User: What shape does this take?
Amino acid sequence: MELAKVEGTIVSTAKAEKLQGYKLLLLNLIQPDMKPSGTYVVAVDAVGAGEGEVVIVCRGSSARQAEKLSSVPTDASIIGIVDTVEFKGEVVFQKHKK
Assistant: This one.
């Protein structure tokens, strides 16, 4: 699992049938100190995340293990919305204190 920040939405009118009805989001992977990595990933949203939120993303075969996504052809899935990140004994992110 990795941390990422939602930086945009992907709109695709032509996509695999099993992806119909799923929101695709553009993520920038972030380091534990909340600095962006500059590595972007398109992920299927399984939890209702929105732009600007910090999320937990899983990639590879694990991305299809979320209950709703077992038959969805995805290599990256958002499986959680982060409330707090504590790194080296310090709170480096709190959702309600952006």
